[in-house]
Amino acid sequence: MERILVLGFILATLCLITTEFACNGDVHSGNCLESDREALVDFKNGLKCSENRFLSWKGSNCCHWEGITCKNSTGIVISIDLHNSYDSFSDYQNWSSMKLSGEIKPSLKKLKFLRYLDLSGNSFDDISIPQFFGSLKNLQYLNLSNSGFSGAIPPNLGNLSNLQSLDLSSEFSYLWSDNLDWMAGLVSLKNLSMNHANLSMVGPHWAGVLSKLPILTELHLLGCNLSGSISSLGSSNFSSLSILSISQNAFNSKFPQWLVNISSLVSIDISNSELWGRVPLALSELPNLQYLDLSGNKNLKGSCAQLLKGSWRRIEVLILASNNLHGTIPSSIGILCNLKYLNLGFNNLTGSLPIFLEVPENCSSESPLPNLTYLSLSSNQLTGKLPEWLGELEELVELRMDDNNLQGRIPASLGTLQHLTNMWLGTNRLKGTLPDSFGQLSELVYLDVSFNNLIGILYEENFSKLSKLKYLLLSSNSFTLNVSSHWVPPFQIHFLEMGSCHLGPSFPPWLKSQKEVEYLVLSNASISSSIPNWFWNISSNIGWVNLSLNHLQGQLPNPLNLGPFASIDFSSNLFQGPTPLPNRGAYLLDLSDNKFSGPIPQRIGEFMPELWFLSLSDNEIKGTIPASVGHMWNVEVIDLSRNELVGSIPSTINNCSNLRILDLGYNGLSGMIPVSLGKLKQLRSLHLNKNKLSGELPPSFQHLSNLETLDLSYNKLSGSIPSWMGAAFSHLRILNLRSNAFSGELPSDVSNLHSLHVLDLAENHLTGTIPAILGDLKAMAEEQNKNQYLLYGMSSVHYYEESLFVNAKGQVLEYTKTLSLVVSIDLSHNNLSGDLPKEITNLFGLVVLNLSKNHISGQIPGSIWRLHQLLSFDLSSNKLSGTIPPSMSSLTFLSYLNLSNNNFSGKIPFMGQMTTFTETAFAGNPNLCGAPLVAKCQDEGLDKGQSDVEDETDNNFIDQWFYLSVGLGFAVGVLVPFFICTFSKSCYEVYFGFVNKIVGKLVWLKRRANRS
């Protein structure tokens, strides 16, 4: 018996020595097991790939096959690594030829001691993750990332109790799970990555499940559609956590304060995840924290000065961009010895940058921020000068200070930063010259100083060592380039912006050497020559070219030799000849304001089906509009205005389903408006004015629910104004039907146009009365003190600018930049009758009111003083009677008044504002008297007879403005400051506060005089 026990002990010991393989009775001969080799061969047979992928899979010893690892002592297969990855285009080509796809056969289950399986970076064509993976009990590492798997994640993966690392991530993942309860069995898991897996159905309890994994060290759940609060978890649940990456989710949660108690944290990324509340100052005290990214949480608040005063002992990367941080940047940032990357861009930081930085005490270097390579303070509200210490950041590679309010000169010391590759200083208020030292930045790739107040002459020496320069942005300054005609720059530029720089009069000859240009802006550059032929030899890669606002002349080649789908702006020059088209299509083509002639190319739409912006306006183009414009499926802007086009509007335009702007104004188009235009449901601005169009307004227009501008003026349109307009055009700002043949009454439904700012129905055949309900036009009842440019287009660089001619002050004025401030009603030159409705004085925002040349009777409402924004008021050539209300003297902004040719009587209230008008404003009223007319009133008390006229104003109010106009003078004291202050709320408030004080003082003096 004892011998048996001894023998058993010896056998057990041998089992331990010879591993599991010997215990299972297999004979090891130094090669891999026959059973493992057969399993691998069967696994390979299920895969689809190039023959080169498995060239090494030959012979009996599978341990020597590429991607296979065996245990040295036994030959048992313990690892399969068939990952496939790429980092560049050339790598991608290799990846594409080496990727795996097909079927994953269950023969892998025979590899009972498999510990490592990596199939990442392949393309398994949306097959499901095999269920049998959950039976690989010894698996410690499983990586299926970016491999094309889709469907539900098998819950039986939770059986892998030995698994230490699980990666199911993918940038284009179609994997999903409706709960994470199965993860409770992954008791050995240290690293979990499921980036972009869809976990939207998991609910708010996902964090509670994961917090139960006892030794979880890394957690990566980027872009998993997670939601729910993460602020209530206890920190002890993640006591081993080192890396937390849960960005690009939708938590809508208060910032998780419990993070500050996890001392093991090295990296935190919760960017773009809808966090709110304050960033805890205690984050800076985490002893091991090296990486923190909380960017893109727009409602995260905090004081920058307080946050950056913390210790941040080991912090290397600090990204707090695109939040709601406020305050100033403290000098204490200088003591962050290990900081390499700092991004505070797109916040609300204010004040000046510190003049000096605090010097670190416990660093190996005595200079501030000795390791900083990246600094971004872009898009804040910083003021003051650029400090000299920026030039002491010796390791700096990228500096971003653009889009602030920085002033003063650019420090020459920035030219000593020999590692600098990117410098962004654009869109500030910097002045002075570009430092000569910048010519020594031999590593510089990107230089942006555009949109500043810089001046000076740039010589060849300024670019002498910039051999690596690829991006140069100098636009919107006052530079003059003074180089020889034989100069060959040391760089090959990709992106060149020199708009508003003085480059002319000749087209820059040094561009001939630039063979890699892709983006070129030379607008407003004082160039008055023709484009040389050599330009078209270097232009085949250019994707964006802007040569607008010069005096370029001559004829352009047709077709234009440019890059595929280019954006082309040759507007506002002197080009002649036929309209050219790009040889490889275009996204944008602006040839407006030139002298092109001849017809529009009939195949224009077929050449450019991808076009989104087309402008040929202000030329001498003749002929018809080609039907091929209907091929421009993506076009958003078509502007063919101010040409000599004839014929009808092609119905094929309705195929342009994305069209937002259609401007065909100022041509000779005739026929009826196509019914098909009503299919352009994205249309926001329609200009068909100054043509010869006839017929009625198509009923299909009521489907244009996004319309903001409708200008059909100066045509031959007829019929009644449709009653459906009020319900159909809820966004309409401008309605211009002037000078047509519309007839009938003005429908009361027009009052439902609640967004309307301009209503021009003048010079038609309208009859009936002015509806009292017109006083319900909501947008006109609001004062327009804030100017907003009316721009349309996909690009902030290129857009269509809304414009409109308005009859005001007895003349025709064009409004563009200030169009949003215009509030106007013009019903002149019609056959309207009845009384002037009192309700029209509810429209406090009116700037222009013209009801002249009608048959309107009755009196001017005494409440007319309520229209205190009125600049132009014309009631001439009507049948109005009664006295002129004294309250009109309080219309202090009124600069044009015409009450001529009516039946007004009594004394003109010649006080306040009324003293600024001459007799022509009152001519043709035989019963009027008093200044400024020659006819004098017989009785000084005539004005007392005006008490029967409705007057809702307060006498004190009239007196205040009377004394103001006498004391200050209208033109200098009121009108000029008002227009200056219209664009500044703070100026507006200060100015009128001052006015009120002056008025109060004058009223006090008047009362004192009355008492005496």
From TrEMBL:
A cellular component term, taken from the record's GO annotations: plasma membrane
Keyword Repeat included in the entry's annotation: yes
Keywords: Cell membrane, Glycoprotein, Leucine-rich repeat, Membrane, Receptor, Repeat, Signal, Transmembrane, Transmembrane helix
InterPro entries: Leu-rich_rpt, Leu-rich_rpt_typical-subtyp, LRR_dom_sf, LRR_N_plant-typ, LRR_R13L4/SHOC2-like, RLP23-like
Membrane protein topology class: Single-pass type I membrane protein
Transmembrane feature ranges: 961-983
One Pfam family linked to the record: LRRNT_2
Record has Transmembrane helix as a keyword: yes
The Disease resistance R13L4/SHOC-2-like LRR domain, residue ranges: 106-299, 313-514
Subcellular location: Cell membrane
Chief location bin: membrane
Limits of the Leucine-rich repeat-containing N-terminal plant-type domain: 34-70
SMART domains for the chain: LRR_SD22, LRR_TYP
Annotated signal peptide: 1-22
Domain of life of the organism encoding this protein: Eukaryota
Family designation: Belongs to the RLP family.
The protein's name: Leucine-rich repeat-containing N-terminal plant-type domain-containing protein
Taxonomic source organism: Vitis rotundifolia
